[in-house]
Amino acid sequence: MQIPNLTILTLNTPNIKDFSAARNKLLSDVTTDWALFVDSDEVVSPDLEKEIKTQITNPMSTYYSAYRIRRLDNFLGTRLKHGETGNAHFVRLAKRDWGSWQGTVHEKWVGKGLVGTLKNPLLHTPHPTLSSFVDKINKYSSLAAKERFDSGIRSSFVQIIFYPIVKFTHNYLLKCGFLDGVPGLIHAIMMSWHSFQTHTKNYLLWHQK
Fold first, then answer.
1. Are 200 and 160 in contact (CB under 8 A)?
2. pTM of the predicted model over 0.85
């Protein structure tokens, strides 16, 4: 994929402990006007490529300084249309000086200026196997727990017990994850497990201290 005046940036994620720092380092080396972040488990669809090219090369379309892009997850052979990932949008395309990435994990690109939304999605296959999903949850929950600890946020016994239940109810029932069949059920359970791990690890960090 080659678009004039655009740099495509991809993280090599296995050993990263601070995702914002890694993304900001990549961003600091950009010399083109625009930057697009695409993770190693994401694919830019042909329609999205055409739309990006139109937006950043058409003088009438540079009204925005950044763009949100919808991300469609493929999990266990099923395109998840519901749950917390069913309508997920992230700022991934922006002018290089628009802002910076914030957050150790589950980071966000934050800046000043108008943000538009593109119509076509990024195609995302984050968990090719269930075991890879378990491994990622273990890593990300540790990072999230440490980030909360460093920020002075404590997880309580009540949060350990009830937040995973709330998380599952939100994803599977309120966000209609059940409409994605068995993969939707498994995904909702795994995200609930992520919540349990994060709050438990944060609780343990405070008590070890």
1. yes
2. yes
